[in-house]
């Protein structure tokens, strides 16, 4: 799965002021990502506010994204849920050939045991021939996919090909790398930890910040993959304030404000999310302008 090495972006879903999907904004965002050098795009992840979308809206976004990308970069589709039977039915119904893989978050709210998590992913793996990326994000799901469960799934199912890790647990990352099959991918799910995770052997990131700054995010990952860690560290520190502001009042409210500041798409979110405060808007405007100025200076030199 070399197409999933590098920088992938979990796309936001742009909305209009009335809450409807802003397909013009989504088209702008897709072009912005491709022009910025993003290696692959992830549609319908958490950052896409998928929990607030209807089944019909999800399908329309997946189809629209595939049409606009038109094969220029690989695509990953997000399918997650805490009703295994319903999720399996959705995946079986998914027939869009433009997508190369599925990203599936661990079941949330139910707080299953490790055996429950294993059986959940087993059902998904047996429902599709597409490669599957596990998504471990205990801060959102309320449960952890333990290392033993990840390795068991990696060994038992050929189409479970990687894990997006957002647990912020470096012992956990290290043990995955030490015990995984050679071809199994460790992918950062936390922008601020991409550089240190890649030093352990992660192959890249599925980014939030990259929605607003695809060029810088892709360059950071490229530096790490080429072992140019001095350059990577400099860019890592330049992005830290942006990373913080993306999440200070929730994702994707922060990055959507950045995208509006950059003129890519509007900043509307759906309830229960709300737009960031005026104070955070001010901080974001300053941070965006500062990073743009640093990028222009670096490119000029």
UniProtKB/TrEMBL annotation:
The record marks 46, 109 as: Part of a proton relay during catalysis. Keywords: Amino-acid biosynthesis, Cytoplasm, Diaminopimelate biosynthesis, Lyase, Lysine biosynthesis, Schiff base. It catalyses: L-aspartate 4-semialdehyde + pyruvate = (2S,4S)-4-hydroxy-2,3,4,5-tetrahydrodipicolinate + H2O + H(+). The keyword Glycosyltransferase does not apply. Gene3D superfamilies: Aldolase class I (3.20.20.70). It comes from the Bacteria. One of its GO terms (molecular function) is 4-hydroxy-tetrahydrodipicolinate synthase activity. Pfam families: DHDPS (PF00701). The active site is at 135 (proton donor/acceptor), 164 (schiff-base intermediate with substrate). Pathway: Amino-acid biosynthesis; L-lysine biosynthesis via DAP pathway; (S)-tetrahydrodipicolinate from L-aspartate: step 3/4. Its EC number is 4.3.3.7. It is found in: Cytoplasm. HAMAP family: DapA (MF_00418). Catalyzes the condensation of (S)-aspartate-beta-semialdehyde [(S)-ASA] and pyruvate to 4-hydroxy-tetrahydrodipicolinate (HTPA). NCBIfam families: dapA. This is 4-hydroxy-tetrahydrodipicolinate synthase. It comes from Olivibacter oleidegradans. The lineage of its organism: Bacteria, Pseudomonadati, Bacteroidota, Sphingobacteriia, Sphingobacteriales.
């Amino acid at each position: 799965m070399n197409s999933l090495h590098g920088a992938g972006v979990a796309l936001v879903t742009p909305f209009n002021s009335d809450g409807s999907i802003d397909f013009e904004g989504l088209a702008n965002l897709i072009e912005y990502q491709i022009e910025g050098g993003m290696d692959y795009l992830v549609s319908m992840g958490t950052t896409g506010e998928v929990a607030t979308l209807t089944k019909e809206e999800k399908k329309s976004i997946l189809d629209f994204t595939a049409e606009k990308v038109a094969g220029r970069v690989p695509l990953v589709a997000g399918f997650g849920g805490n009703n295994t039977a319903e999720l399996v039915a959705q995946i079986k119904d998914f027939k869009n050939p433009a997508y190369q893989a599925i990203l599936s978050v661990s079941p949330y709210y139910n707080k299953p045991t490790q055996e429950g998590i294993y059986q959940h992913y087993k059902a998904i793996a047996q429902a599709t021939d597409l490669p599957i990326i596990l998504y471990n994000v205990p801060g959102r799901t309320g449960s952890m996919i333990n290392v033993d469960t990840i390795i068991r799934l990696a060994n038992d199912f050929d189409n479970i090909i990687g894990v997006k890790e957002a647990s912020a647990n470096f012992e956990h990352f290290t043990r995955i790398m030490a015990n995984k099959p050679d071809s199994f991918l460790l992918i950062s799910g936390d922008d601020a930890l991409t550089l240190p995770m890649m030093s352990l052997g992660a192959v890249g990131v599925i980014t939030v910040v990259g929605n607003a700054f695809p060029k810088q995010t892709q360059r950071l990952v490229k530096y790490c993959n080429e072992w140019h860690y001095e350059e990577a560290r400099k860019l890592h520190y330049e992005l830290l304030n942006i990373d913080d502001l993306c999440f200070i009042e929730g994702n994707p409210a922060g990055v959507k404000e950045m995208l509006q500041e950059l003129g890519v798409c509007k900043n509307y979110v759906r309830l229960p999310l709300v737009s960031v405060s005026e104070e955070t808007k001010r901080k974001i405007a300053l941070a965006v302008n500062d990073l743009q100025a640093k990028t222009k200076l670096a490119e000029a030199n």
